[in-house]
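Structure request: NAD-dependent protein deacetylase, Megasphaera stantonii.
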Amino acid sequence: MTNVDKFIDMVQHSDNIVFFGGAGVSTESGIPDFRSVDGLYNQKYKYPPETILSHSFYVSQPEEFYRFYRDKMLCLDAQPNAAHIKLAELEQAGKLKAIVTQNIDGLHQKAGSKNVLELHGSVHRNFCQRCHKFFDAEYMLHSEGVPKCDACGGPIKPDVVLYEEGLDNDVIEQSLYYISHADMLIIGGTSLVVYPAAGLVRYYGGHKLVLINKSATDMDKSADLVINEPIGEVFSRITV
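Returned structure:
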């Protein structure tokens, strides 16, 4: 029995599954991640992405921030891949209870998932910092310079957690609840190096911890099953 076969068997015999995912879940949808060979960290920019996507840079150089943001973070034509779709099916079947994601692209919801806990926010939620009016991602994409509110003229900020900013406490608490109560935790498409998000998986106390990632992670030795294959291919083999 291969590791993928073992994984499918675990899924079939679990009814309280939680999925914890990172950028690798969306790369098969054409969204670049941060640390792969083709990721954002290897693009040619005047500043490294982790600098541009920081709170202090957003405040000090908002026009440069938004130039990068529109160019690299708003991938609005991307479509859900097999992993997104199968996770939505597992939730609909009552087996998957929550998705905890580090991604901000909204592809889980686009695939039909309902209970999605977004640790780092979403590009699809944007708010005027003055009057708090809501704006969608299309508005941001087609704006110029620093996006301005069409009601009061105030600056609009994405509801995305930048470097130097804290995570939402309610999202953390809900994530901890689902992870600690899960009978199976699937970690996919993440190198588990971004904290505090990566630390949440340590609250899982069960015996069905599955890691699906193309490269090795520091948690491999703690996992019950490790699969180093593309996540979409693995999930496509699940029959719900």
